[in-house]
């Protein structure tokens, strides 16, 4: 079955409450792995105009706003957006929220942002190249695009841990890396989430598209779990064997034409 962006969005509408319940707070992956990279990369964001493209339940938007950024957030899932608005209601942070597709943002002006962040979003976007073109249009010259995704080299249409008879993880299975397109992503039964849709593309596809859209790659990061996780979260140490995430720090050098 060839899933579309609308299919992906609808699955996130259905899964939004379960996602928010499981991961809406201080999830260790966010707090210990990704947030430090985001804020170290962006530096002093006081007064900076930042687009949180694919904001989900608004977790990162709120953190950016609390550090003084002027935040605009876009989300395709209306249910996720409702959760973001509800979270901010008790303590308004002046985040501007829009319901929309990150590959088509005509309601946002050219060169109106200092930075764009996609925090585990692009793998859920059918038109990643359209999104990159929009980010190039929206960023001022020299602006930063921070691209965070599930690592495309290890999250392929066929993936997962191969285990022995006692359930011990032996190695990570990776296959069909060059098979671009949508595939279903299962979640753990305890999360209460139904499968979502990811759109696979290779690392080369991503980097080459960024270059063609006027970006220069400044840094590539594969976050490693801190040593404290061996005690606090031993069940999460898979990331010490195979990187779960890929971070690309990009600088806009020219506007896509």
TrEMBL record:
Domain of life assignment: Archaea
Keywords from the UniProt entry: Methyltransferase, S-adenosyl-L-methionine, Transferase
Keyword Methyltransferase applies: yes
Pfam families in UniProt: Methyltransf_11
Entry-linked SUPFAM superfamilies: S-adenosyl-L-methionine-dependent methyltransferases (SSF53335)
Biological processes, Gene Ontology terms: methylation
Protein name: Methyltransferase type 11 domain-containing protein
Organism: Methanothrix harundinacea
């Amino acid at each position: 079955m060839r899933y579309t962006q609308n299919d992906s969005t609808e699955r996130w509408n259905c899964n939004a409450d379960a996602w928010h319940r499981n991961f809406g707070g201080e999830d260790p992956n966010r707090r210990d792995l990704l947030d430090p990279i985001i804020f170290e990369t962006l530096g002093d964001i006081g007064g900076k105009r930042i687009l949180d493209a694919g904001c989900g339940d608004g977790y990162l938007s709120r953190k950016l706003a609390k550090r003084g950024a002027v935040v605009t957030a876009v989300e395709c899932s209306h249910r996720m957006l409702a959760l973001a608005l509800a979270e901010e209601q008790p303590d308004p942070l002046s985040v501007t929220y829009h319901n929309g597709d990150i590959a088509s943002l005509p309601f946002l002006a050219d060169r109106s942002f200092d930075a764009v962040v996609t925090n585990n979003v692009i793998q859920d976007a059918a038109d990643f190249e359209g999104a990159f073109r929009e980010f190039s249009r929206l960023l001022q010259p020299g602006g930063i695009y921070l691209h965070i995704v599930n690592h495309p080299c290890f999250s392929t249409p066929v993936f997962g841990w191969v285990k022995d008879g006692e359930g011990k993880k032996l190695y990570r299975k990776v296959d069909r890396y060059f098979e671009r397109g949508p595939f279903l992503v299962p979640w753990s039964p305890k999360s209460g989430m139904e499968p979502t849709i990811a759109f696979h593309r290779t690392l080369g596809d991503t980097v080459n598209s960024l270059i063609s859209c006027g970006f220069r790659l400044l840094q590539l990061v594969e976050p490693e779990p801190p040593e404290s996780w061996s005690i606090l979260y031993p069940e999460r140490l898979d990331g010490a064997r195979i990187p779960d995430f890929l971070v690309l720090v990009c600088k806009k050098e020219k506007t896509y034409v």
